[in-house]
Structures are given as C-alpha cells and as structure tokens.
Amino acid sequence: MRTISYLNPERLKLDEHMSFQNRVAEATRLLSVETMEVKNFLRALADYKAALIVSSTVTMTAELKTIDKMVCKLWVLLKDTAETSTGLSIEDIRLAAQKVYNIVVDIGDPRRKPINDRMGIVARLFNELDRLGSQTLKLALVDVAADKLKEQYNLFLTKYAERHTIKSSRIIGVAPVKRLALNIAYKEMVDNINALARVNGESEYQQFIAEVDQDVIGMKHILLMRRKNYGESTTESDDKTNIK
Q1: Is residue 31 a contact partner of residue 208, using CB atoms and an 8 Å limit?
Q2: Per-residue pLDDT tens for 49-73?
Q3: Which end of the chain is more exposed for a tag (fewer CB within 10 A), N or C?
Q4: How many CB atoms lie within 10 A of CB 179?
Q5: Cα separations (Å) of 33 from 25, 144, 204?
C-alpha cells in the first residue's frame, strides 16, 4: 500500500517551501473529508503566509504590482458576487452567500492598505473562508472567484518568496515560528492520512497520497542533489532532525 513518504520541510529553501506547502494545500481538494489535522494544516499555512508577508518590507517589482492589481480586482469580484447572491430567491444560496459576505465585510477592504497589510487581510480572509468549507462557497456561487483570488494570492507570495530568497536567506519576525508550526501541522496531517489509509483502506485517500507523495519525491531529489553538490551527508536521517 502506498503512503506519503517522509520529508522534513524545514530543509527546503524559502521559495521551495512555499511552493511545496501550497501544492499540498491544493491537493487536499482530493480528500472527501477534511479531518481535524487537515484543517489545522490549512490554518497553519494561512498563518505562515500572513507572517511571511509582514516579516519584511515588500519592494514591489513590475511583476508583483501586476499580480497585486489582479488580487484587488478579484477581491472586488468575490465581494460583489457574494453581495449579489444574498439577494437571490433560493434560501440555501442566500444564506450561504450572507455568511461569505459577512466575512468579507468584517475583515475589511484591502485595496487602500499598504501592501503588507493588504496581503495579511487576504490571508485572514482565506483562513475564514476555509473554515466555511468548499461546499458553502460553491453554494454561495463564489467558489470560482475565491479560487481565482487564491491562485493570484499564492502566486504573489511565491514570486515574493523567490525574490526575497535572492536578497536574503533569512526570514525575520514571527515567520520562523509560524513556519515551524506549519511544518509540524504538515507532519501531523501526513501521519493522520497515512494511518487512515492503513485502517480504512487506501481507495478514499489514494489520489491525495499519490499527488503529495510524488511532490515529496521531487523535493527529496532536490535535497539529495544539493547535499551531493556541497559534499554533505546523504543519509535519510539528516532529514529527521527538526520535526519530531
């Protein structure tokens, strides 16, 4: 039976780590049920993103400015779609849309905020929308807008992480603490899914396991090549030093 292989994400560089955890989060869509460990992982990822974006001043490149404008446009689309759906005659749609609209309004308009604050607002928005669940977003007719907004938000963070890695190998502020919390949550989720697959059978989890494990194999290959290039030890135990 296939399970998700071990990986210590602490050994990944900033941009590698962000991309990897984003892909794992996207893969959770393949799970029919969100366990508590999955929810904790998604929440930890949102917290880390918020901490990372405020950990240092963001110098806006032309590419980042373009993505930032798209984030703002998609936030408006999400808000307007939710507001429109609150006026529809079908009660289930109206109630779901009202929940989404209340969250958007309560968290606030990010458009006229400094970039650090703006991305922090979007991070908190997704943290709350994830709590509602994908079915509620779909019922409220905002799922497409939310997916597109998340896609551009993640792209912004990935591009920022790539640029930040070039300028500095260190992340500051509370981000390192949030990163460690995210990695612990990732390990707990992986252990949980692997255990459920062993007990209940792998059919319900095989797509998620296959997708994440393939990504893990790719990351482990990158780490292996890096250690060989720098003449470091290539034993698997090297990857098991930080997360217990």
Answers
A1: yes
A2: 877 765 555 566 788 889 999 999 9
A3: C
A4: 23
A5: 14, 21, 9
φ/ψ (deg, to 5) at 31? -90, 135
Residue 133, phi-psi category: left (phi > 0), alpha (psi -120 to 50), beta (remainder): left
CA-to-CA distance for 79 and 130, rounded, in angstroms? 16
Dist CA 17 CA 37 (whole Å): 19
**Look-up: residue for tokens 């408006």?**
76
Distance CA 33, CA 30 (A): 9
Among 231, 193, 181, 126, residue whose Cα is nearest residue 9: 181
- The predicted-structure confidence for 146-182, as pLDDT tens digits, reads as follows 999 999 988 887 777 666 554 444 455 567 888 889 9
Q: pLDDT, tens digit, for every residue of 87-144?
A: 999 999 999 999 999 999 998 899 988 777 787 788 888 878 888 888 999 999 999 9
- Residue 86, classed as helix, strand or coil, is coil
